[in-house]
């Protein structure tokens, strides 16, 4: 039987910043709360992160008007500092993120298992919007 979980979704962005900065902004909760949302009417009021193999993370994503919020959380299965992250979400889906240094820029590639509720394109669009927000925030920060 075919299931949506046999398909993975990939989003990527090239961030105009060196890999050390990109890594720091990706893993530090004080930065995560500044970019981990898909649109300006949302925010991330809380983030906790233990970026090591076996460590846990949790980011609360919430509508600014208070109408809805959820916790995005999981456990790291593999962390290679400065270059690679794998984690599992509570529903069994897996996510892989690579950070590739291109000199003064860094390519970030996320591949994830889709959930079964929303269409693939909607999920790709949401994750790409968050990654684009990360790029915008990281590039704007000195």
Automatic annotation (TrEMBL):
Cross-referenced InterPro entries: ASHA1/2-like_C, START-like_dom_sf
Stored CDD domains: SRPBCC_CalC_Aha1-like_4
Domain Activator of Hsp90 ATPase homologue 1/2-like C-terminal: 16-138
Record-stated family: Belongs to the AHA1 family.
Protein name, entry field: SRPBCC family protein
Organism from which the protein derives: Mucilaginibacter dorajii
């Amino acid at each position: 039987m075919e299931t949506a979980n046999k398909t993975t979704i990939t989003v990527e962005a090239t961030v105009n910043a060196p890999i050390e900065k990109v890594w720091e902004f990706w893993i530090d909760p004080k930065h995560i709360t500044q970019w981990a949302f898909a649109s300006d009417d949302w925010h991330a009021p809380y983030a906790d992160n233990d970026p090591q193999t076996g460590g846990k993370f949790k980011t609360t994503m919430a509508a600014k008007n208070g109408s809805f919020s959820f916790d995005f959380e999981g456990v790291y299965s593999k962390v290679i500092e400065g270059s690679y992250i794998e984690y599992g979400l509570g529903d069994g889906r897996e996510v892989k993120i690579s950070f590739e240094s291109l000199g003064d820029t860094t390519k970030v590639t996320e591949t994830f298992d889709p959930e079964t509720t929303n269409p693939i394109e909607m999920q790709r669009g949401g994750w790409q919007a968050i990654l684009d927000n990360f790029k915008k925030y990281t590039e704007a920060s000195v």
